[in-house]
Amino acid sequence: MRQWKLVLAGFVLIAAWPLLVHDVFYQRVGALVLLAAISASAWNLLGGYAGQVSVGHAVYFGTGAYAALVVYTEWGWPPIAGAPVGMLVSMAIGLVVGTPTFRLRGHYFSMATIAAAELARILASNWPLLGAAVGLMGPPRPRSLADLSFISPVPYHYLFLAVLTVLLALTAGMQRSRPGYYLAAIRGGDRAARSLGVPVLRYKLFALMLSAAFTALAGSLYAVMVGFIDPDSALGILISVKMLIVAALGGAGTLFGPLIGAIILVPLEETTNALFGGGGTGITFIIYGAIIVLVARFQPGGVAELWRSATARSPRRAA
Amino acid sequence: MLLEASNIIKTFGGFRAVDGASLTVNEGEIIGLIGPNGAGKSTFFNCLAGDAQPTEGTIHFLGRDVTRTSPEMHARLGVARTFQMPVTFEDMTVADNVMVGAFLRHPGRTAARRAAEEVLDFTGLAPLGATPARSLGTPGRKRLEIARALATEPRLLLLDEALAGLTPAEVRLAIELVRRIKARGITLVIVEHIMEVILSLAERAVVFHQGKVIASGTPRAVVDDPAVVAAYLGHHMRRVRRD
Q: Fewer beta carbons under 10 A from the terminal one: N or C of chain A?
């Protein structure tokens, strides 16, 4: 009950954020926090709940981003119309990447996902349809409302909030039903899960495809907001790493962990970018690296776990 | 006949871990697989559970060929197992661990919860339902594995050293649990090192040595079999017979 109130308070605060701050910089940070929370929550479906750590989710993010701008450059559609295309293509890519790589365990799976994502980045850098190394531009000026091209970050804030709410509601529903239990069992151990009748490969693919679809949606939303993408900004390894770090920092495998991670990390990143300008990418890498080390060493459960142990009233009894 | 394994051979490289072993299991009995370490009983056991595929030979469960069937399909058909080293889902509570098993026959959350609660009561784990599995000790983990397997509502339950590492008092509790599982109409195959357990529980003992079945029969007859005693149970058996 108390937790439910806390969630409601958090939601109201996030919904009111653009009205509370008038500086465009802070409004933009708010929208970017939500966007990062969407992609990290999508990553969390596979990496957190099912425990299959992908370091190649940029391939799905990039698919969504490119789909949004390709439907514009090729057919003149509003970019957001590319989102369902990107989601479908991502699910297909997930199936192709997942079927062989899920036979690999642990680090080998993670390494295979990196390879797949790098392959996609190199492919995009050389494919004229995707603008090759130069990238793609969205509509230079909005033709209609459907282009979702706004100067103010505020409309994006609410668009992202709506998508995040849907994704988290879906995740919460899954967590309480058979697929949620089965994914948690897979995270606990393939062998034990299979002995209990869990079709492990099918559920891993299910988690990957769901995760890929929402990651692609995040990519489309990014392209719609920014209006310009190139292989590095849509398919770079930093994008994959960021999803992982945001989720792990907040708490992988928890409902609100990715959102908490985004609330901590994105403002930090935007501030360093603002302070150090274009040279900030290096700093971002250093921050990411430091966070990986600190989370892995001191708090593998992320901030959500820290919060849980801090609020636990009575110590649990052991058998 | 519930299960029939014929002429199972399992090789790892050039090594024959199981070398032409056969076993038939009838509905409602408790069978003990015994033998020293490295006798091949665990490998044979894994073949029965679908966790390993025999190099040669066939396994039939309820008349159906399950030799190359996946472990998840075994569970679906009614073969459940526990592991020598318990592999409980550490992040989940005891009740949620059992829920995973219960979801096999009850796709809905409410029905699965009800089925899991029944199993928790049956195994005496109900008071620990909300405890995280990681805080359980060895006896608790072994019991939880049994509960989780029971929640899949099996016809045949394979227990891999479910009693090893327990204190004598805990062993007595576990024996009592196995008896109650049998009373539910579930057939059991148990791999066990402790002879006392086999003598007090099993109706039939099957002795493995170097990948082969060298003796089979009532536990009493098997422990008195000179070939078994002479071959390798040796001093351990004499101690038991003195009791």
A: N
